[in-house]
């Protein structure tokens, strides 16, 4: 319609132009008719040609009836004009009339052209109006139609698209809610029908997939819940997507409540700030391991945490798996191993030895500080350096046979010597095989002691011991050492001589097995006392063969620094000679020089002892006091020397008159006492007195002269001895003296008894 309207407009414009041109042609025609000028004719022809050319194009000017007429008239006009021009200008009347007629015809025809042009213009105006009207109508109708079409489309869309879309939306919402049972159920055979079926199939697949996922998750849970580890999955937003049951067990956190919650929410900001850097590393695709500790049941537990990135096929990290394994026990064991290794290092470093451990290939796996120092090996080379390399060829050659022993599971000991810093160094190397529990040989320990100092000390000690032994062997003292088991560990030469045995029969033997039982018994108590740590001094008799010795023993306990008695040193000195001298001196001190019987000093010693014995035995006791009658006259007549002889003879007769157990003592001058023990009746001493009196009176020859001696005897008798003190002794002596006085008074050569303060006369023996 638009194009038509444009064409109508265009035609109208052309018609108007043509009308104007035709009007011009009419004016020219009139001018030609009036003036018959060639220039006017020329112009007429030019204008006519232009009009004809303009009308020739149908496409541009159209094909209205007026135009057809106009075109016809226009085409016929040049012939008429030519005929007019062909007529002579100053012809006859016929010609003039013909010319006039032709002019009229030309004018008429030109007028017709003008009319037709006008008509064409009018027609074109009309056509244009009609085209405009059509265009306007169409312009109105098209939106209406389009609106209607839109409306119709909307209805169709509503019916076919929106309602299914709404159902689809509801279905999607249901799925979002987790309701997978919603079905679209659209059976139409169109796109929505296909979509619905696809959708329903998809939800069914989702349900199946969900069930599969639930089964997988359950399986995952079953596995992870039974793992001795915290297992979780954390997404890029630091939110848990999965956590196993151990979170509840170990940390008291419900694993289901953790899902979709962020780490700081679950574990707290503090630990999150620690974890963040590590989580970011895991999210950058790096596998991360770290340790942290948690408190569980009031006990600190160590966890080894590992983040394993979850990398999508495209390479992006979707999240990471977090595994936390309780390594408290392992850590404890590791610590214990580390501690025991440290202890071993401390221990091996503390002992004054080079300690090393070698495997079956003789590769050093461990060496203590002293070992490294002495070999001049850097610690960085352990483990790895071979024994040959560490020791050097010369020293290794010494070790090699022993190493072979150790590698075959036998202990080996090497006492070796090396030149070190220009002097001989002694060492003792112990190779101790290392067996596993399964009894497989794994290697061996090498423990090397620098025994140079020990060797030197040993040499010094041996020298010193030699010197000491030379001294002790030449001492007249038996020197022994008994250990705590009473075994001889050292005996000097004198000791061996007294034992009458060689050293190899003595050393290591128990003293109880070597001595006679009696001799051992005498020493046993002292040895035992010595072994309790007390110094003991005693004397004992020692009989070797036919030699009897009195030995003075000193046992000196050997007390170690911890107070333990390791044994005792015994020093035995032969005091036999001394004892003899002592005995002689004792005899001298206690015996009367002239007569050889006990003297007053001895009597004073022995009498109280006799009293004690009587008291203990609850027996009686008698003390005789004797005096030679008229001894002064013997001295006076025969001289003092003869008097001495008489005293000797008298003493001898007294001793012969009593038992050897009865003590005869000279108190001084011609006064003697005799102590009779075990007498319970006053008659018993009288029997002895009678015998004495009888013996004394036997004839005696002194210096060629025969003498008859008599004696007077005073006897003190006590049936019961109550107290055995000096006063009692004095009292007894006093009573005996009183009884002697009574005997003297009674005429001498007799006796009197003072029995328990009662003086008893001699019983008819005088
Ligand atoms: N030969 C000698 N005479 C001694 C010794 N000690 C003392 N006498 C003497 O012995 C005498 C002792 O005498 P008395 O006992 O007093 O008197 P007695 O003559 O024995 O008279 P009665 O005892 O009364 O019978 C004194 O003359 C002393 O000098 C001695 O060791 N040797």
UniProtKB/TrEMBL annotation:
Record key words, sorted: Membrane, Nucleotidyltransferase, Signal, Transferase, Transmembrane, Transmembrane helix
UniProt cross-references to SUPFAM superfamilies, sorted A to Z: HAMP domain-like, Nucleotide cyclase, PYP-like sensor domain (PAS domain)
Pfam family, one: HAMP
Cellular component GO terms held in the UniProt record: membrane
CDD domains: GGDEF, HAMP, PAS
Coiled coil regions, renumbered to chain: none
Domain PAC: 286-339
Entry annotated with the keyword Cell cycle: no
Membrane spanning stretches: 137-158
Official protein name in the record: Diguanylate cyclase
């Amino acid at each position: 319609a638009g194009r038509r309207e444009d064409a109508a407009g265009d035609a109208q414009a052309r018609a108007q132009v043509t009308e104007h041109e035709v009007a011009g042609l009419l004016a020219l025609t009139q001018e030609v008719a009036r003036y018959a000028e060639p220039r006017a004719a020329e112009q007429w022809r030019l204008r006519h040609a232009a009009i004809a050319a303009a009308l020739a194009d149908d496409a541009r000017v159209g094909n209205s009836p007026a135009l057809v007429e106009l075109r016809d008239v226009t085409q016929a006009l040049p012939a008429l004009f030519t005929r007019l021009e062909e007529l002579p200008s100053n012809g006859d009347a016929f010609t003039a009339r013909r010319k006039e007629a032709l002019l009229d015809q030309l004018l008429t025809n030109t007028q017709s052209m003008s009319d037709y042009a006008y008509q064409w213009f009018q027609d074109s105006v009309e056509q244009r109006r009609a085209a405009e009207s059509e265009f306007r109508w169409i312009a109105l109708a098209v939106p209406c139609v389009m609106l209607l079409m839109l409306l119709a489309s909307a209805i169709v869309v509503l019916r076919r698209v929106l309602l299914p879309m709404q159902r689809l939306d509801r279905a999607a919402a249901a799925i979002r809610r987790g309701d997978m049972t919603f079905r679209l159920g659209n059976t139409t055979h169109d796109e929505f029908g296909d979509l619905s079926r696809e959708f329903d199939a998809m939800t069914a697949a989702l349900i199946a997939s969900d069930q599969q996922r639930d089964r997988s998750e359950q399986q995952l849970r079953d596995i992870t819940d039974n793992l001795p580890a915290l297992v979780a999955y954390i997404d890029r937003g630091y939110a848990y997507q999965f956590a196993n049951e151990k979170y509840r067990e170990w940390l008291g956190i419900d694993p289901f409540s953790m899902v979709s919650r962020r780490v700081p929410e679950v574990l707290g900001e503090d630990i999150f700030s620690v974890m963040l850097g590590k989580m970011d590393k895991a999210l950058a695709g790096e596998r991360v391991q770290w340790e942290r500790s948690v408190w569980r049941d009031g006990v600190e537990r160590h966890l080894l945490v590992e983040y394993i990135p979850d990398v999508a096929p495209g390479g992006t990290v979707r999240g990471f798996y977090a595994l936390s394994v309780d390594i408290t026990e392992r850590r404890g064991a590791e610590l214990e191993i580390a501690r025991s290794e440290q202890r071993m290092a401390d221990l091996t470093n503390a002992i004054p030895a080079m300690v090393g451990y070698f495997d079956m290939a003789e590769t050093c796996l461990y060496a203590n500080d002293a070992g490294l120092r002495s070999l001049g090996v850097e610690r960085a080379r352990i483990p790895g350096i071979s024994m040959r390399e560490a020791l050097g060829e010369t020293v290794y050659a010494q070790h090699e046979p022993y190493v072979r022993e150790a590698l075959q599971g036998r202990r080996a000991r090497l006492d070796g010597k090396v030149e070190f810093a220009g002097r001989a160094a002694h060492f003792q190397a112990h190779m101790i095989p290392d067996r596993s529990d399964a009894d497989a040989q794994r290697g061996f320990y090498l423990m090397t002691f620098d025994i140079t100092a020990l060797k030197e000390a040993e040499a010094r000690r041996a020298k010193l011991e030699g010197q000491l032994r030379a001294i002790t062997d030449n001492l007249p003292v038996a020197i022994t050492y008994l250990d705590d088991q009473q075994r001889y560990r050292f005996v000097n030469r004198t000791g061996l001589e007294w034992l009458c045995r060689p050293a190899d029969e003595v050393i290591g033997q128990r003293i109880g097995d070597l001595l006679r039982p009696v001799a051992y018994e005498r020493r046993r108590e002292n040895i035992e006392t010595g072994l309790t740590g007390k110094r003991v001094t005693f004397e004992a008799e020692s009989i070797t063969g036919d030699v009897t010795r009195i030995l003075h023993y000193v046992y000196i306990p050997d007390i170690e620094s911890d107070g333990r008695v390791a044994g005792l040193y015994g020093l035995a000195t032969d005091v036999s000679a001394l004892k003899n001298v002592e005995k002689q001196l004792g005899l001298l001190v206690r015996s009367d020089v002239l007569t050889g019987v006990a003297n007053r000093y001895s009597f004073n010693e022995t009498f109280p002892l006799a009293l004690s014995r009587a008291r203990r035995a609850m027996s009686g006791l008698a003390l005789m006091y004797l005096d030679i009658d008229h001894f002064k006259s013997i001295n006076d007549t025969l001289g003092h020397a003869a008097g001495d002889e008489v005293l000797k003879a008298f003493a001898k007769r007294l001793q012969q008159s009593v038992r050897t157990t009865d003590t005869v003592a000279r108190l001084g001058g011609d006064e003697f006492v005799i102590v009779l023990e075990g007498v319970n009746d006053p008659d018993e001493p009288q029997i002895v007195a009678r015998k004495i009196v009888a013996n004394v009176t036997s004839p005696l020859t002194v210096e060629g002269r025969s003498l008859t001696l008599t004696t007077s005897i005073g006897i003190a008798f006590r049936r019961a001895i109550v107290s055995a003190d000096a006063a009692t002794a004095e009292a007894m002596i006093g009573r005996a003296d009183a009884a002697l006085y009574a005997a003297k008074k009674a005429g001498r050569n007799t006796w009197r008894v003072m029995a328990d303060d009662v003086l008893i006369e001699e019983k008819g023996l005088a």
